[in-house]
Design a protein that fits this description.
Diaminopimelate Epimerase, Chain A, domain 1; 6 helices; 361 residues; 15-stranded mixed beta sheet
C-alpha cells in the first residue's frame, strides 16, 4: 500500500468517536483512547488482532529528519491548532511516543501530525512533536512538510498557508526540494542575560522567540565541530538549566554560535533541542530568533541575507522585514532544502510491550 491509499485495518468499534473524519486522515485510526498502556487495547483486541497501521512519509531538511503522519492519527476535533495541540499533549502522548521514540524512531526525529486546517484558505495544519513532547513550531519541519506534500502530489509550486499552534506560516515551494517559509513574528525578549555556570564561567546571551523560545550565545569557547558534540551538548544543557532557573522557564532550545566553516556563511551554530538531541539543520525557528536579535542590534538590514551554517555544514538563508520597528518585532523568512527519504506504514501491535515506544522522560 502506498501513502494516501485507503486502509482496511479496523481499530475498535465502528462508532468510536476517537476515529478521525477529516480529509487528511479519513480512515479508521491506528490509535484509540487515551491510555499509554498497551493493556488499554485489550477490548479492541477482541475485535481484531491485526496491528494498527500509521501511514507516514519521512524526509530530512538540511540533515534534520521529519516524519509526517499522513493517516492513522488521533481525532483532535475541529478547534484551533493551539487547542488541538493541547488535546494531543493531554490525551495522546502515547501516540507521540510511538511515532518518534525507539524502536520505530530515534531521539533526533521530529514528528509532524498532518491536520485539517481551520481556514479554507490554508493548505494544511500541523502539530510538531519530538522525543519528549509537543513543540510550538518547527521551521525545518515545515520545510519538510511542504516537500512531502509535493511528493504526494497534494500541492504544486507556489505559496501555501500552513497553520501551526503558534500561527500561520506562509511557505513557498520554489523548486522540487527548496522552500522559503515566512515564519511567525519574532522578537528578542531579553538582551545580555548573564549566567554563571560551573565549568563554563560567565555566559552572556539573549532570549528570543522565533516560533520556539531560545537562549542564544557566542560565549562558549568549545569548537563548533562534530568531534565536540558531547562537550557542546553538555554545555548547552547546563546553560538551559541555568537560564530556566534565572527567570526564563519557557526557554527549551539553546543556540551556540561561532565562526563559520563555510566561507559563504555568516555564522555557524550548534542547536540543542528540548529532548537533548542536537539539531542537524541550522534550525528554522532558531534562525528566526537569531534574525530578531540581529535586527534589534542593527547588525542586519531589512531584506539582506544572513546565511546560517549548521553543525553538520548545511545552511539556511534568512531575511526579515519589520512588522513593528519600534517594538523590534520582525517577520523572518528562512529558505532551506528538504528531501523525502522514506514512506510506509508503522505497525502498532497491542501485544508489543513497546507499541507506544521506549520513553526516556
Amino acid at each position: 500500500m502506498t501513502v494516501g491509499e485507503s486502509s482496511s485495518l479496523e481499530d475498535g468499534p465502528a462508532n468510536d468517536p476517537s476515529v478521525s473524519k477529516n480529509s487528511h486522515q479519513d480512515k479508521p485510526h491506528a490509535v484509540r483512547g487515551d491510555s499509554p498502556s498497551p493493556s488499554a487495547l485489550d477490548s479492541a483486541s477482541q475485535h481484531s488482532r491485526q496491528p494498527r497501521a500509521i501511514e507516514f512519509v519521512d524526509s530530512h531538511t538540511a540533515g534534520e529528519p521529519t516524519r509526517v503522519v499522513i493517516e492513522g492519527g488521533p481525532d483532535l476535533g475541529t478547534g484551533s491548532l493551539a487547542e488541538r495541540r493541547e488535546l494531543f499533549q493531554a490525551r495522546f502522548d502515547h501516540f507521540r511516543s510511538a511515532i518518534v521514540n525507539e524502536p520505530r524512531g530515534s531521539d533526533v526525529l521530529v514528528g509532524a501530525l498532518l491536520c485539517e486546517p481551520t481556514d479554507v484558505a490554508s493548505t494544511a495544519g500541523v502539530i510538531f512533536f519530538n522525543n519528549v513532547g509537543v513543540l510550538n513550531g518547527c521551521g525545518h519541519g515545515t520545510i519538510g512538510l511542504v516537500v512531502t506534500l509535493f511528493h504526494l502530489g497534494r500541492i504544486g509550486h507556489g505559496t501555501h498557508r500552513i497553520e501551526t499552534p503558534v500561527g500561520t506560516v506562509s511557505a513557498t515551494l520554489i523548486g522540487e526540494n527548496q522552500v522559503a517559509i515566512e515564519n511567525v513574528p519574532s522578537y528578542r525578549q531579553a538582551k545580555d542575560v548573564r549566567l554563571t555556570i560551573d565549568g563554563l564561567g560567565e555566559v552572556v546571551g539573549d532570549v528570543a522567540w522565533g516560533g520556539n523560545w531560545f537562549f542564544l550565545t557566542k560565549s562558549i569557547s568549545i569548537p563548533l565541530e562534530m568531534s565536540s558534540i558531547d562537550a557542546l551538548t553538555d554545555a548547552a544543557w547546563r546553560i538551559r538549566k541555568a537560564v530556566n532557573a534565572q527567570g526564563f522557564p519557557d526557554v527549551d532550545h539553546v543556540e551556540l554560535f561561532g565562526a563559520p566553516s563555510d566561507p559563504k556563511a555568516d555564522s555557524k551554530s550548534f542547536v540543542l533541542c528540548p529532548g537533548k538531541a542536537y539539531d542537524r539543520s541550522p534550525c528554522g525557528t532558531g534562525t528566526s530568533a537569531k534574525l530578531a536579535c540581529l535586527a534589534a542590534d542593527g547588525d542586519l538590514e531589512e531584506g539582506d541575507a544572513w546565511v546560517q551554517e549548521s553543525i553538520v555544514g548545511t545552511s539556511f538563508v534568512g531575511r526579515f522585514r519589520w512588522q513593528d520597528a519600534e517594538k523590534q518585532i520582525i517577520v523572518p523568512t528562512v529558505t532551506g532544502r528538504a528531501w523525502v527519504t522514506a514512506e510506509g506504514r508503522l505497525l502498532l501491535d497491542e501485544s508489543d510491550p513497546f507499541a507506544w515506544g521506549i520513553r526516556t522522560a
